[in-house]
Structures are given as C-alpha cells and as structure tokens.
UniProtKB/TrEMBL annotation:
Species for this entry: Knipowitschia caucasica
Membrane topology, record value: Multi-pass membrane protein
InterPro entries: PMP-22/EMP/MP20-like, PMP22/EMP/MP20/Claudin, PMP22_EMP_MP20
An annotated GO cellular component: plasma membrane
Pfam families to which the protein is assigned, alphabetical: PMP22_Claudin
Membrane spanning stretches: 67-87
Locations listed in the record: Membrane
Family: Belongs to the PMP-22/EMP/MP20 family.
Predominant localisation class: membrane
Protein's UniProt name: Lens intrinsic membrane protein 2.2
Keyword terms of this UniProt record: Membrane, Transmembrane, Transmembrane helix
Length: 109
C-alpha cells in the first residue's frame, strides 16, 4: 500500500518541476530600471532595450548557478517520474521513498 501522502507529494513535485523549468529558462533573474525601460539578465542571456544576447563572459558564479539549476531540474524530473511510476505499478513504497529523496535532493540543489 502506498503511503497516504504520496499523491500530494507527487502533485507538489510536478508543480515544482514546472516552476524550476520556468525559472531556469527565463531572463528575469536580475532587473535594472533605466530612464524609460527595463534591462534584465538571466542565466543564459541578458536583454538591453528588448534586444537579447547570450552571455559571452564566463563568470564562475553564473556557471555554478547554471550547473546547480540543471542538477535540480534533473533530480526533480527523476523524482516525479519515480512518483508517477509508483502509482502505475501498484504498491511500491520503495519507489515512493526514492522519489521523495530525489525531490529533497532537488530542493537542496
């Protein structure tokens, strides 16, 4: 029998995965307001006056943040897949436990 909170944990894991993907892909990590427009910067590119360009200078802080965000997305995806397969294959509490561990690891990243 599955633990009683497995369904809620899987739903929260799916929501976390969607939010992680959106936050990793967007360009709104840092915003600066100038006289009439906003400039913003994300993990992958920066936008000035609605013209976006990829980062050309490698800064260790941004590289480490990219790596941890990608590790977080991958471990969250693994946790969601393990959580969903526990429901399709019947009573697999070991998979639910492993999915929980993957989701906690994703939060730590």
């Amino acid at each position: 029998m599955l633990p009683p909170l497995a369904g809620g944990g899987t739903v929260c894991g799916v929501a976390a995965l969607v939010l992680l993907i959106v936050s990793t892909a967007t360009d709104f990590w840092i915003q600066h307001r100038h006289i009439e427009n906003w400039d913003n910067q994300g993990l992958w590119r920066y936008c000035i006056s609605h013209r976006c360009r990829p980062h050309t200078i490698a800064v260790a802080f941004w590289d480490a943040t990219r790596a941890f965000m990608l590790l977080s997305v991958l471990s969250c995806f693994a946790g969601v897949v393990l959580g969903l397969t526990a429901f399709t294959n019947g009573t697999k509490s070991r998979r639910v436990r492993t999915a929980g561990i993957a989701l906690i690891l994703s939060g730590r990243f």
